[in-house]
């Protein structure tokens, strides 16, 4: 009974808060670090820590609907870092399977967003890169919210790969590498990041769940002037209320962009 009352009161508060945010500044591109899945599972009493990833995976579609309702234009979901690829196979394999299931779920027909999977996909075990790419390809041309799913992703590696790609493209076009080295600037890197499309070389707002307060290599290039927001709850317990409070915190900040 008490739980039902709390839920009803929270729903009322969420509607009011969402209404208050309608005319306030909001981020165009939100990066979110889905952290704390295993710790949530332990605290919830689950013997298998993978249950945290399962519950966290189901939370993703719900979160994307919150973003659509808040008129967010782009979201980057940090699901797996390239450092995580060094985990033992008995840990990594089930996690990859849950990520595949999650991506197939958010790429299902009829959903109002377009999905792209970014990262060092060639380093994923088995045929996971093919599974993820095929699922995302089915959303091409949908428009709406742009969703980047970062898997096997590392921000420093992305910058390295962008530099390599810029030089390879220049050489393939018959250009001199020494000439490019003299004129090389930030736009060359921005143009060759993993995520394609306008505006994807920068993010406005990064949220990390679980209480940890570090980027862990997430969107290092894109986050140069991003606002940060750290939430104490674990990702599976992240609520729309927590998201709206994060957006309220963003709206209250004065963005100077280094000036």
How would you describe this protein?
The protein has 259 residues and is an alpha/beta fold. It has one domain (26-251): Undecaprenyl pyrophosphate synthetase, CATH 3.40.1180.10. Helices cover 45% and strands 14% of the residues. The chain contains nine helices and six strands. Strands 3-4-2-1-5-6 form a six-stranded parallel sheet, sandwiched between helices. Helix 1 packs parallel to helix 9 (240-251) and helix 2 packs across helix 3. It is globular, with a radius of gyration of 19 Å. The N and C termini lie far apart (53 Å). The mean pLDDT is 95.
The CATH class is identified as Alpha Beta
Oligomer: single chain
What is the total domain count? 1
Q: State the helix count.
A: 9
- Please describe the biggest sheet, giving its number of strands, its sense, and whether it closes into a barrel: 6 strands, parallel
Pick out the low-confidence regions. none
> What is the strand tally?
6
Looking at the overall shape, the CATH architecture is 3-Layer(aba) Sandwich
Mean pLDDT: 95
Q: What percentage of the residues does DSSP assign to strands (E)?
A: 5-15%
Distance between the termini: 53 Å
Provide the CATH topology.
Answer: Undecaprenyl pyrophosphate synthetase
Q: What is the CA-based Rg, rounded?
A: 19 Å
Helix content: 40-55%
Question: CATH homologous superfamily, by name?
Answer: Decaprenyl diphosphate synthase-like
Find the structural class using helix and strand composition. alpha/beta
Helix and strand pattern: HEHHEHEHEHHHEEH
Spatial sequence of strands, sheet with the most strands = 3-4-2-1-5-6
Q: Judging from the principal axes of the Cα atoms, what is the shape? A: globular
């Amino acid at each position: 009974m008490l739980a039902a009352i709390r839920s009803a009161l929270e729903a009322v508060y969420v509607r009011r808060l969402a209404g208050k945010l309608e005319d306030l500044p909001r981020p165009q591109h939100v990066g979110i670090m889905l952290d704390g899945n295993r710790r949530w599972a332990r605290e919830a009493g689950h013997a298998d820590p993978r249950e945290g990833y399962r519950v966290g995976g189901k939370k993703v579609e719900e979160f994307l609907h919150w973003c659509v309702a808040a008129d967010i234009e782009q979201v980057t979901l940090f699901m797996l870092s390239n450092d995580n690829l060094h985990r033992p196979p008995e840990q990594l394999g089930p996690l990859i399977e849950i990520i595949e299931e999650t991506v197939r779920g958010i790429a299902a027909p009829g959903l109002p967003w377009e999905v792209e999977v970014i990262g060092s996909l060639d380093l994923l075990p088995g045929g996971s890169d093919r599974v993820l790419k095929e699922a995302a390809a089915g959303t091409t041309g949908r428009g709406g919210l742009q969703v980047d799913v970062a898997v096997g992703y590392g921000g420093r590696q992305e910058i390295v790969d962008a530099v390599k790609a810029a030089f390879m493209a220049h050489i393939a076009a018959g250009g001199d590498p020494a000439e490019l080295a003299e004129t090389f600037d930030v736009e060359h890197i921005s143009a060759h990041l993993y995520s394609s499309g306008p505006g994807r070389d920068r993010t406005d707002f990064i949220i990390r769940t679980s209480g940890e307060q570090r980027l862990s290599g997430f969107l290092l290039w894109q986050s140069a002037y991003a606002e940060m927001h750290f939430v104490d709850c674990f990702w599976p317990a992240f609520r729309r209320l927590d998201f709206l409070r994060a957006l309220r915190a963003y709206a209250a900040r004065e963005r100077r962009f280094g000036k």
